[in-house]
Amino acid sequence: MDMISTTEQLYEYCETHSTAEDRVLAILNRETHIKTLAPNMLSGHLQGNLLTMVSMMMQPGLILEIGTFTGYSAICLAKGLRQGGRLISIDISEDYRHMAEKAICEAGLETCIELITADAKKIIHDIQEKIDLVFIDADKEAYLEYYHMVKPKMRPGGVIIADNVLWKGKVLDADMDKKTRALHEFNAHIRQDQDVFSLILPIRDGLNIVMIR
Ligand SMILES: C[S@@+](CC[C@H](N)C(=O)[O-])C[C@H]1O[C@@H](n2cnc3c(N)ncnc32)[C@H](O)[C@@H]1O
Questions:
Q1: What is the DSSP-derived secondary structure letter of residue 82?
Q2: Which structural domain, as residue segments, surrounds residue 149?
Q3: Beta partners for 115?
Q4: Where does the chain show beta strands of DSSP type E?
Q5: What is the mean pLDDT of the chain?
């Protein structure tokens, strides 16, 4: 058996032997694949379970998500909010907001998830409270900028999770394109940041999990 099919089969095994997607997420996953132009942007079952797991372990009071898309990861993250906690999710585009709103209502999470349509770079400054958990999953070239914007707002022990940090393996390329270089520089910056403890997990497209010491 070659390496790729073994990896794919193991990934499938992990999905079928982890807690199943609930009905709302399964429908949202399917509809995102039918109705959107880039369904591969959705976090998906296994990564979604990881986001839920981290959030459930932390029981955050405030989660910030940069990049809502159809709301899949927002729902996964919001499942771990403590009583009275809330999640702010920002997306520059309105294209799929209706899908996110519908799924969030079906999940019964409409009172704790706030969707904002804006360029995240322009409004993160407005957040005054301490943030417990951040999911960075928007424009790749701005990851380091997002990191510098959110880090001072994090409480000690807070966690920043950044998606797509392996960029389909392109971070290994000798000749990197702009997005790949930005992601590589983000990972390199985290590696030398003494204020944090970090772990890159090679799940899906790579998650950099960064805990503020
Ligand atoms: C990969 S998708 C998010 C997927 C979602 N987090 C999930 O896992 O289901 C990235 C989203 O970031 C949004 N985006 C791109 N640039 C942005 C910006 N400057 N501010 C806010 N959102 C942005 C895009 O419109 C897109 O919907």
A1: P
A2: 3-212
A3: 89
A4: 62-66, 86-91, 113-117, 131-136, 154-163, 196-201, 207-212
A5: 97
For ligand 1, the distance from its centroid to the CA atom of residue 90, given in whole angstroms, is 8
- In this structure, the residues whose C-beta lies within 6 A of any atom of ligand 1 are 41-43, 66-67, 69, 72-73, 90-93, 119-121, 137-139
Contact by Cβ (8 Å): 147, 120: no
Q: How many domains does the chain have?
A: 1
- CA of 88 from ligand 1 middle (Å) equals 13
> Cα 76 vs. chain centroid, distance in angstroms?
9
Q: Which residues pair with 66 in a beta bridge?
A: 90, 136
Cα 66 to averaged position of ligand 1 atoms, centre (Å)? 6
pLDDT tens digits, one per residue of 125-156 = 999 999 999 999 999 999 999 999 999 999 99
CATH of residue 207's domain is 3.40.50.150
Q: What is the pTM of this model?
A: 0.97
For tokens 């966690």, the residue is 159
